[in-house]
From TrEMBL:
Entry-linked Pfam families: Cytochrom_C_asm
InterPro entries reported for this sequence: Cyt_c_assembly (IPR002541), Cyt_c_biogenesis_CcsA (IPR017562), Cyt_c_biogenesis_CcsA/CcmC (IPR045062)
Listed transmembrane segments: 6-26, 87-105, 117-134, 141-158, 178-199, 220-243, 255-273, 285-305
Protein name: Cytochrome c-type biogenesis protein CcsB
Record's keyword annotation contains Transmembrane helix: yes
Species this chain originates from: Intrasporangium calvum (strain ATCC 23552 / DSM 43043 / JCM 3097 / NBRC 12989 / NCIMB 10167 / NRRL B-3866 / 7 KIP)
Localization, UniProt: Membrane
Keywords: Cytochrome c-type biogenesis, Membrane, Transmembrane, Transmembrane helix
Length: 312
């Protein structure tokens, strides 16, 4: 069973890489179509009236009364983007099979080792992106989300895959499963918020006509954090309960605990700054970037700083 799980993991990695290439190729094709012909603009609502997410990679940005681009130039970009979407869903299916087979083989949730958590993290990133693409048709988020998933999978591929007996701290399977799976969804949504911020901050000027408007990206990032922040709060609470059972103390200022708290404070500060202080645009985007950097530190920090979580 573990062998088949590894096959599914490799298939997921290859599929995710292909999906990444498809999305970037679609972006390039859309840019080329805009350069050659007057593009066609398509309105897509993002959750509420007035949110025009021009995100079909067809070259949005031209006035509505401009002549449409020839079918061969626009369809190539759209088709490539749809291929990227289908490959993303296929990667999710492969990762789901990988994790399910590993869980069947080990008898516990696939959240114990760095290999398992990195694989689960990639799964959470892809599922979160797939939700945002489905709900908001925010395909250009893939330009930053997919590389994150590929990096997480590549990192997982460098970690040992052997199955070892659970250390005593991990033998409460219910709390372990709840704590980690909530973290997977929280960090996946944080990755989407980072992608929205990164698109706004780092997209070259010549490509900006192919991505959503800055205010739309700002709303997408905010909506991702609105999902992720309550989940991250649950991660802290469940982790504290688990710590009291495993180590006899709700809080030990372990490096991973501390990094997780810092992450929570950063995103709490972002929500306060945005809602109470009216921070939007570049300032809010930089907070999302800083927050996701803290997520990454929380994820890999125990490898450098040790602590009670050094087994993970």
């Amino acid at each position: 069973m573990l062998t088949y799980s590894q096959f599914a993991f490799v298939a997921a990695l290859i599929t995710a890489v292909l999906a990444t290439f498809a999305y970037f190729w679609a972006m390039a094709a859309g840019h080329r179509a805009v350069s050659q012909r007057a593009p066609r603009r398509q309105r897509v609502l993002v959750g509420e009236a007035g949110d025009d997410l021009l995100d079909d990679l067809d070259g949005p940005g031209a006035p509505l009364n401009e002549p449409a681009a020839p079918a061969y130039s626009t369809m190539s970009a759209t088709t490539l983007a749809r291929i990227g979407t289908r490959l993303t869903w296929l990667a999710i299916a492969f990762l789901t099979a990988c994790l399910a087979m590993r869980m069947a083989a080990t008898g516990n949730g696939p959240f114990v080792t760095q290999y398992e958590f990195a694989t689960s993290m990639a799964w959470g990133i892809l599922v979160s992106y797939a939700y945002f693409e489905w709900k908001y048709r925010a395909r250009t988020l893939a330009l930053f989300v997919m590389p994150l998933a590929v990096v997480a999978l590549a990192y997982a591929g460098t970690q040992p895959t052997e199955v070892d007996p659970l250390v005593p701290a991990l033998q409460n399977s219910l709390l372990l499963t709840l704590h980690i799976i909530v973290a997977v969804f929280a960090y996946g949504a944080f990755a989407v918020s980072f992608a929205a911020a990164a698109l706004d901050l780092w997209t070259p000027q010549k490509w900006r006509h192919l991505i959503p408007k800055p205010e739309v990206l700002d709303r997408l990032g905010y909506r991702a954090v609105v999902i992720a922040f309550p989940l991250d709060t649950m991660v802290l609470v469940l982790g504290a309960v688990w710590a009291e059972i495993a180590w006899g103390s709700y809080w030990s200022w372990d490096p991973k605990e501390t990094a997780s708290l810092v992450t929570w404070l950063i995103y709490g500060g972002y929500l306060h700054a945005r809602v109470a202080r009216g921070w939007t645009g570049k300032r809010a985007a930089w907070l999302l970037v800083i927050g996701f950097a803290s997520v990454v530190l929380t994820f890999v920090g125990n490898a450098f700083f040790g602590g009670l979580h050094s087994y993970a």
